[in-house]
Amino acid sequence: MPPTQRWPEQGWAILQLLLVVSFSQTEELVCRRRGAPESPLLHKDGDIMLGGIFSFHTSWKDRQDTYIQKPLPLQCTSLNFRDFQFAQAMLFAIEEINNSTDLLPGISLGYKIYDTCGSIARSVRVALALANGNDAASALSEAPCTRLSQVQAIMGETSSSPCMAIATVIGPFHIPMISHFATCACLSDKTKYPSFLRTVPSDYYQSRALAQLVKHFGWTWVGAIRTNDDYGNNGMATFTETAQQLGICLEYSVSFFRTDPPNKIQKIIDTIKTFTSKVIVAFLSHMDMDVILHEFSHHNLTGYQWVGTEGWIFDSQTAAMDRHHILDGAIGLSIPKAHVSGVREFMLDVKPLNSSSNEIFTEFWEALFSCKFRQSKSSSGNQRECTGHEDLTGVQNSFTDMSFMPIFNNVYKGVYAVAHTLHSILNCNKTCNNTVQLDPYKILQLMKKIQFKTKEGEEVYFNENGDPSAKYEIINWQPTEKGTVDFVTVGFHDASLPADKQLNLQNESLIWAQNSQQVPLSVCSEKCPAGTRKVLQKGKPVCCYDCLRCAEGEISNITDSTTCVRCYPEFWSNERRDACVKKKAEFLSYQEIMGALLTAASLFGTCITNVVALIFFRYRKTPIVRANNSDLSFLLLFSLTLCFLCSLIFIGRPTEWSCMLRHTAFGITFVLCISCVLGKTIVVLMAFRSTLPGRNVIKWFGPAQQRLSVLCFTLIQVIICVLWLTISPPFPFKNFKEFKDKIILECALGSAVGFWAVLGYIGLLALFCFILAFLARKLPDNFNEAKFITFSMLIFCTVWLTFIPAYISSPGKFSVAVEIFAILASSFGLLFCIFIPKCYIILLKPEKNTKKNMMGKGALK
Question: What span, in angstroms and rounded, lies between the C-alpha atoms of 823 and 817?
Answer without folding.
Answer: 10
